[in-house]
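It would be a great kindness if you could assist me with a short task in structural biology. The matter concerns a single protein, recorded as an amino acid sequence and a row of backbone structure tokens. The record follows directly beneath this note:
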Amino acid sequence: MDYETEEQQLEAIKRWWKENSNMIIGGIAVGVSAIFGWQFYQDKTIVHSEEASVLYEQVASNVQSISASNDQMKHVNTLQAEYSDTPYAGLASLLLAKQQMALGEFTKAQQQFEWLAANAKQEEVKYLAKIRLARLLMTIEQTDKAIAVLSETYPASFKSMVLELKGDAFVLKGDSTQAKSAYQQALSMSNTPNRWLQNKIDDLGGSTKVDSTEPSA
């Protein structure tokens, strides 16, 4: 399934973990049960996940506050250091970075996104962090770095989103040819009509004809 927005992708990650966490925990436990014993490992893993969940909820409950609190930073740091094997570390880091972006704390947000891109165990979270990192880099006028991030390999479900953002980056750079090419490819990969994207192409004086190659960085 393709996702048109980052929010749809994030919700899919949450739903997937909720539906599959018990199976994953069980599958891991089977492999180590001969050494540690099934019951001990199961109990320990469940407690580990529950502890991470509590820390995540503490971060999420304060996400609307005026500024990121020291407690939020502490909880996110703990999740990254001790619970990076759970999805809660990545989700909490995304929440904190989004809050920091809203506050104009771009350097701090960039650090969160870069940690996620390098360390997130869930591939979807890692790619989502890269997309948000690219948006941040465009905001602080580091367009070439943003294009480099967007030129990395992404799964098909992210492709349309990435290409549209790449087109936006080329527009900021003043390269309408590359921008149009990226937009046209994004439109061709979208499963639903996207009038907004078509408007971007029209604004550049382009048709819906799709180039055969991706735009270069």
In short: The chain has a mean pLDDT of 82. The longest helix spans residues 6-36. The radius of gyration is 20 Å.
